[in-house]
Specification:
Elements: E1 4-9, H1 40-47, E2 57-61, H2 65-74, E3 80-84, H3 90-102, E4 109-114, E5 118-120, H4 123-129, H5 131-135, E6 139-144, E7 155-161, E8 169-175, H6 180-189, E9 192-202, H7 203-213, H8 215-226, E10 229-230, E11 236-238, H9 241-244, H10 252-255, E12 263-268, E13 271-273, H11 278-284, E14 293-295, E15 298-301, E16 307-309, E17 315-318, E18 323-327, E19 332-336, H12 343-352, E20 363-365, E21 369-377, E22 380-387, E23 392-395, E24 401-409, E25 411-415, E26 421-424, E27 428-431, E28 437-440, E29 447-455, E30 457-458, E31 461-462, H13 465-471, E32 477-478
Helix pairs in contact: 3-7, 3-8, 7-8
C-alpha cells in the first residue's frame, strides 16, 4: 500500500476569502487559524504523511512554485513538484502527474487532494479501504454526506454497494451544481453525496481513460511532459508551455469520470468543508460561548456569532452580531455573514479598478526573508527588505529607475555598481538605472534595508522592486 501517491492540487484563487486570499497569495497558502498556524496547503500535506503514502506530488502554477517550495521546507517534507506554465483546470494537471508516475511505476495509485479544503475525521482509513478497488482498475470518488442544500457543490447519486468491495458503491449519475430546490430534493432521497473533489485510481487507468475520451489533451500533456525542464532548486519539473496550453481546460470529473464505466463512490464519514468563503471559516472555527471565532489581537464586547481576524493592530468590535471583520496590513473587510459570498463581487470591482489590493499583499514572505511596501506614489516607491542570515537577493534594475539602498539594521554585502561594498546600519548606496544589485547577508542576524526607487512611471506610480517581486513580472534571484 506504500504505492499510494498523494497528488496535491494547488489551483484556485479563493476570491471569496479576500483580503486574506489574493491572486498572487491565494487561500491555499494562507494560515487557517491566523498567523503562526499551518496553511491550508501544509495541512493537506501533513494529513497524508504516514506509512501508507509515498512522498507527495504537488501540481502548482508557475507563479506559486517558490511559495510551495518554501512551505514544504517549513514542514520538512520532500515532494515532487509539477509546475503548470498556464492554468488548464484540474484535468490536465492530474493527467500530467499520472504520466509522470507511469514511466517508473505502472501500477502506482494516486489519491487526488485539493489543497484548500478543511477535513476532520478518518479520511486516510477510508482511502486505505479503497486501495484494492483502485488497484483493480476502479476510479474511486469520495462523497460526503450532505448536511444542507448547497447549490455550489456537485452531487453524486449512490447506485448501490458492490459485493466485492466493502464500503464501495456504484455511481448512478453526477449532478453539477443544481439549484437549491433540486439539491434539497436530491438530499431527501437519501442517496445523494457531495462531490468532495477527492479521487483515487491507478496512473495507467487514468491515462487509458483519457486516451478513450480526450485524446487531444492526452497528446498535448504527453508532449508537454516530454519537453519539460527540471526545476531549479526543487525536485520536479516545469511542463513545456506551448503544448500544455493546447490541453482542453476541463476538470477531471467532466473530462473522464462522468464518461467512465469503472467509476465508483466511496462514502466518507468525515467533516469536510471546501472553505468557499468567510462563513465557512466561521462554521469550522473554534467558537466561544457567544459563538464568536477570533484570531489575532481582538477585543469583543456584546458581540455574537461573528468572525473577527486581527492583524498587526488591535481590532475592537462592540455591539455587533453575525459580522465578519478581517484585518490585514493593507485592507480591512467588514461585512455581515449573510453577504459574505458577495466578497467575490467586491474583488471583481477591485480588479476593474486595477487596485493592487486585489492582486497581492503589501507584505511578502520569501525564501530569503521578506518585503513590505512602505509608501508609493507618482514617480517613487519605498520598500522595506528583510534579508535573513546566510541568504541573498538580487533586485533587477529597470531602465530609467534609479534606486537608493539604506541599511537600517544589520549589515549586507552589495554587489552592484561597485563590487562587494559592505553596507552597515546607517550606510547608503545608490544603484544606477538598469543595473541589478545583489545583497548578501553573511551575518548571524537578519538585515533590514530600505529601498527607495525613483524614475520610470507606470500608471502614474514608479515600478518598485517589491511590486515586481510580488507579481512575478520581473526576475528576482535568491540563494
Amino acid at each position: 500500500m506504500t504505492h499510494i501517491h498523494p497528488l496535491v492540487l494547488c489551483g484556485g484563487s479563493g476570491t471569496r476569502l479576500w483580503p486574506l486570499s489574493r491572486a498572487h497569495q491565494p487561500k491555499q497558502f494562507q494560515p487557517i487559524d491566523g498567523a503562526g498556524t499551518l496553511t491550508f496547503f501544509q495541512n493537506t500535506i501533513q494529513r497524508h504523511r504516514s506509512q501508507i503514502f509515498s512522498d507527495p506530488i504537488v501540481c502548482v502554477n508557475a507563479r506559486h512554485v517558490e511559495t510551495v517550495g518554501r512551505q514544504l521546507r517549513e514542514i520538512q517534507c520532500k515532494a515532487h513538484i509539477i509546475t503548470e506554465p498556464v492554468t488548464r483546470n484540474t484535468g490536465p494537471a492530474v493527467l500530467a502527474a499520472s504520466l509522470y508516475l507511469l514511466a517508473a511505476k505502472p501500477d502506482a495509485v494516486l489519491v487526488v487532494l485539493p489543497s484548500d479544503h478543511v477535513i476532520q475525521g478518518e479520511l486516510n482509513r477510508v482511502i486505505a479501504r479503497m486501495y484494492r478497488a483502485a488497484l483493480d482498475g476502479m476510479i474511486v470518488t469520495f462523497g460526503i454526506h450532505p448536511t444542507y442544500a448547497e447549490k455550489g457543490y456537485g452531487y453524486i447519486m449512490d447506485g448501490g454497494e458492490f459485493n466485492d468491495y466493502p464500503g464501495l458503491h456504484r455511481v448512478e449519475r453526477f449532478i453539477e451544481k443544481p439549484s437549491v430546490n433540486v439539491a434539497q430534493s436530491l438530499i431527501d432521497t437519501g442517496f445523494a453525496y457531495w462531490a468532495s473533489g477527492i479521487s483515487m485510481f491507478r496512473a495507467d487507468k487514468l491515462v487509458e481513460e483519457y486516451r478513450r475520451h480526450d485524446p487531444v489533451t492526452l497528446e498535448a500533456v504527453t508532449c508537454a511532459l516530454a519537453l519539460a525542464a527540471p526545476l531549479a532548486g526543487e525536485s520536479g519539473l516545469r511542463l513545456e508551455e506551448r503544448f500544455f496550453a493546447q490541453a482542453i481546460s476541463q476538470p477531471t470529473e467532466m473530462a473522464v469520470f462522468e464518461k467512465c464505466r469503472d467509476i465508483a463512490l466511496a462514502p466518507a464519514a468525515i467533516e469536510w468543508d471546501d472553505v468557499g468563503g468567510w462563513t465557512s471559516i466561521h462554521s469550522i472555527g473554534l467558537k466561544n460561548e457567544s459563538g464568536n471565532v477570533t484570531s489575532g489581537d481582538v477585543l469583543l464586547l456584546d458581540t455574537r456569532g461573528s468572525l473577527v481576524r486581527g492583524g498587526d493592530r488591535l481590532v475592537a468590535v462592540v455591539g455587533m452580531s453575525d459580522v465578519v471583520v478581517v484585518d490585514t496590513d493593507d485592507a480591512l473587510l467588514v461585512t455581515n455573514r449573510a453577504s459574505a459570498q458577495d466578497v467575490k463581487k467586491l474583488v471583481e470591482h477591485l480588479v476593474s479598478l486595477k487596485r493592487r489590493e486585489a492582486e497581492s499583499h503589501r507584505s511578502q514572505v520569501t525564501d530569503w526573508g521578506g518585503m513590505k511596501t512602505l509608501q508609493a506614489g507618482v514617480g517613487f516607491a519605498m520598500d522595506l527588505l528583510t534579508v535573513d542570515p546566510g541568504k541573498q537577493v538580487t533586485l533587477t534594475g529597470e531602465a530609467g529607475v534609479s534606486r537608493v539602498l539604506v541599511v537600517i539594521r544589520g549589515s549586507v554585502t552589495l554587489d552592484g555598481n561597485q563590487p562587494l561594498d559592505q553596507l552597515t546600519a546607517g550606510v547608503s548606496a545608490m544603484i544606477d538605472p538598469a543595473t541589478s544589485a545583489t545583497l548578501f547577508n553573511n551575518a548571524d542576524s537578519a538585515a533590514e534595508i530600505v529601498e527607495i526607487s525613483c524614475g520610470m512611471v507606470i500608471a502614474g506610480v514608479v515600478a518598485p522592486s517589491l511590486t515586481q517581486i510580488a507579481t512575478g513580472c520581473r526576475m528576482v534571484g535568491y540563494a
